[in-house]
Amino acid sequence: MSRDTRRRFISAAFVTACAAAVLLAMVPLAMILFFVVSQGVQALNVAFFTQMPRPVGEPGGGMLNALVGTIVLTGLAALIAIPIGVVSGIYMSEYRGTRLAAATRFAADTLNGVPSIVIGIFAYAVAVMPFRRFSAMAGGLALGVMMIPIIARTTEELLLLVPGALREGALALGATRGRAVLTVIVPAALPGIVTGVVLGLARIAGETAPLLFTAFNNRFLSTDLRQPIASMTVQIFTYAISPYEDWHRQAWAGALVLVTFVLVCSLIARVVTARVQRLRG
Amino acid sequence: MRNEFSFRLAVGACAVLLIAVVAAIGLELARESSLSIRTFGLRFWLTTTWDPVAGQFGALPFIWGTLYSSFLALLISTPIALGVAIFISELCPTRLRAPLVFLTELLAAIPSIVYGLWAIFVLVPIVRQLETITPDVLRSLPLFSGPPLGVGMLAAALVLAVMVIPFTSAVAREVLKTVPVVQREAAYALGATRFEVIRSALFFARTGIVGAIMLGFGRALGETMAVTMVVGNNPQVSLSLFAPQYTMAAVIANEFTEATEELYLHALVEIGLVLFVITLIVNAASRLLIWAMSRSAVPASPRTTTIAATV
User: Fold this and answer.
1) A54 DSSP assignment
2) pTM (2 decimals)?
3) How does pLDDT run across B12-22, given as a tens digit for each residue?
4) Do the interacting molecules here have an ipTM over 0.90?
């Protein structure tokens, strides 16, 4: 084989290998989606959303308590994370280049990389130990801490996309920095910031590890923030490692609900981002 | 002027709060593990006996399991993730690009618990099949010793690999974007084949690529649920892929609510503290590499600054 033929052959083989890698990466995705949908629909019905879990051996029932719990927990997390995340994002973009902005960015990236289970221990230390009780509050705190860096970084990125002319125009008209940010710059970036929040919610709604020893679990329907609370993810975990067929079916149905929620959130984010980019030309 | 200052003060307070949260995590972990650190010292990390009843805590099997499973996961995921990144950014038709990016993002968005569910009921039986048909010649090697249980190191490494692929490939894609187009054009002009052009682009981007791989490593180290569900939860230091083992995150997830003794609780928190420190170092190092890469490259597109935001 001549040298050139060999080079061309290697190149073709390389291109094929890369395409094969894409197919290989899609196999688990296809498998997961297939099993979640095909197993999940079997137990998914109206009762799943409106009824409480039944005891082992009684088929049927639902995950009402876990569904409500996840809504309460993510709501709490959003209450904690949105103000801190958005405002520190504003700081990072408005005072770009300052040492505090760089330190905040580093802290946000660090926090983003901290394993969720470690954040769970933190929430346990500050919100469970002092009260000697697992609580929805502690679970919400753990999820909130996880959500802060996601929101902060998206807010920063999107504020930077706001055209400089807008900012300069506001300042030239005599607006103070605070007024320019609140009335011109943030409104311009608002759709993007909302997208960031939606993506953040999607991510923490699927978290299990930090809830195991903060929100713990609750067999009953509860919205009391000082009491342990159930969640979709912890419930799926409990059901998955149990030996009961009925519970396994419930776990798959729960997974289907979670995956659908995540999918819808990323589609919304995609549509909004595309629209924002189109408006900007 | 005063107005200006008070705005900055108010906004800056939130930024400081974010930094304070990270510091507080480190401090709380150190405080809540002090008893175990004082009692065992370095012995904690060098011994293998984990016996809560007798008050003996050696964490070597957990740190081994975490490092070994993450290493194996990288071994599997790195070639695939780089292949995906190269295909999306260099080879595929423009029309395919957006859907492929969406699919890999979806892979990253699937919750860990769903991976775990899939792993228990689908992956583990497949792994068990594979382990059963492994020829006896191989089974005598330490790498493949032990009964074919299905759950164990191999299953954990496979799930981790799947979970890490989207992260590594997303960062690698951004890194490849920072390679100047002229560099590729120059290579083509010299008569290079496609492979040779991409090889030179990879070489140009090597620092960032290493950063991308390390970032995946950081993710794998801290992954909890999916691993807990399939790794076997058996504290032992073994090279065998078939052996049920344990990881740092998994032991915290499984035993934290059972830890009623103070020493037991502190021992678990100490594992968390070390996990925190290791991921901190790995993440900081990888970001440093990616940052050095994007700085040295000629700004090819305004998107280069967003590398850190994609992960």
Assistant:
1) P
2) 0.92
3) 999 999 999 99
4) yes
